[in-house]
Amino acid sequence: MLKQSTVQVSVAGYSTWPSQYTATLSRRNLPLAIIVSTTLVTVVYTLANVAYFAVLTPAEMLSSEAVAMTFGTRVLGILAWSMPVFVMLSTFGSTHASVFTQSRLVFVGARKGHFPTAFGLVSTKHYTPVPAVILSGLVTLVMLLVPDISHLINYTAFSATAMQFACILALFWFRYKHPEWPRPFKVWLAVPILFAGVQIFLLSVPVIMSPMEVAGAVGVILAGLPVYYFAVYRQDLAMLFSGALDKLTLLCQKLFLCVPEGKAE
Q1: How far is Cα 211 from Cα 204, in angstroms, rounded to an integer?
Q2: Rounded to whole angstroms, how far apart are CA atoms 105 and 26?
Q3: What residues form DSSP beta bridges with 123?
């Protein structure tokens, strides 16, 4: 029987990399990947929109339910079917990235004590956070119950923008409050200022255009405050649920053959 307090596993491969070499690769490759990918996507999307305006009239674009399909039918002829195929592949890639990102946010949150320990377990076979992935999938299925997809997009878009804006404000605060902290990644100060300005604009437009949906998104965000207070901040109260959470952890260990991540010596 697997016990949370005694059984641990190390993620294979990571312990064999020298920490200094890994840090060097991160400082070099991460900014390079962001710069190249962002520039490439910006150029492709800009050229695509230029092509739409060059081929279609404003009336055609306004009356079209899918501008890309109308453009493909006009330009590609019998190969117009390739447009929805490429859109499908793009959507699949975006969904694939979201699965990786969201599940690992839950996984790291569990390691920090912001989620139950069960969601910080790692598969002994694949070295992946299986319980965190399953939780993200269940949350996604719940979102699919919303009858109008546009409302769901507005909820999530506003929440994601608010989170990004909060992260930028935190960076400014750390720069002012803790200038002595090491900063592996440094950018020109105008870049985060410009980004913060864009985020303010993106937050202001939904407030004016759809205030009720924004109020619902804010309500969901604020609903997490009492959960954080009782489950994280007040550890004395959180201990009341320790028995049930330990059973959940043991159940996940048995079902998914997962154990807590450990550090190799």
Answers
A1: 10
A2: 19
A3: 258
Q: What are phi and psi of 261, to 5 degrees?
A: -70, 135
State the Cα–Cα distance between residues 220 and 152, nearest whole angstrom.
12
Dihedral angle over CA of 39, 41, 43, 45, nearest 10: -150
Which residues of 101-247 form beta strands (DSSP E)? Answer: 121-123
Chain segment 156-210, per-residue pLDDT in tens: 888 888 888 998 999 889 888 888 888 777 778 888 899 899 999 988 988 888 8
Beta bridge partners of 122: 259
Residue with tokens 């060059």: 54
Mean pLDDT score across all residues of the chain: 81
pLDDT digits (tens, 9 = 90+) for 107-161: 988 888 888 888 989 888 888 889 999 988 888 888 888 777 777 777 788 888 8
pLDDT at position 6, please?
A: 38
Long-range contacts of 9-17 (CB under 8 A, 24+ apart): 9/122, 9/124, 9/127, 9/259, 9/260, 9/261, 9/262, 10/261, 10/262, 10/263, 10/264, 11/122, 11/127, 11/261, 12/127, 14/264, 15/263, 15/264
- Alpha-carbon span 98 to 157, nearest angstrom: 14
pLDDT tens for 10-65 read 444 434 444 454 555 566 777 788 889 889 989 988 998 899 899 888 888 888 88
d(CA 73, CA 236): 64
pTM for this model (two decimals): 0.66
Distance between CA 29 and CA 35 in Å, rounded? 10
**Across the chain, where does the E strand assignment appear?**
121-123, 258-260
Look at the block and give the residue holding tokens 């979102």.
Answer: 143
**Angle at alpha carbon of residue 42, lines to 38 and 46, rounded to 5°:** 175
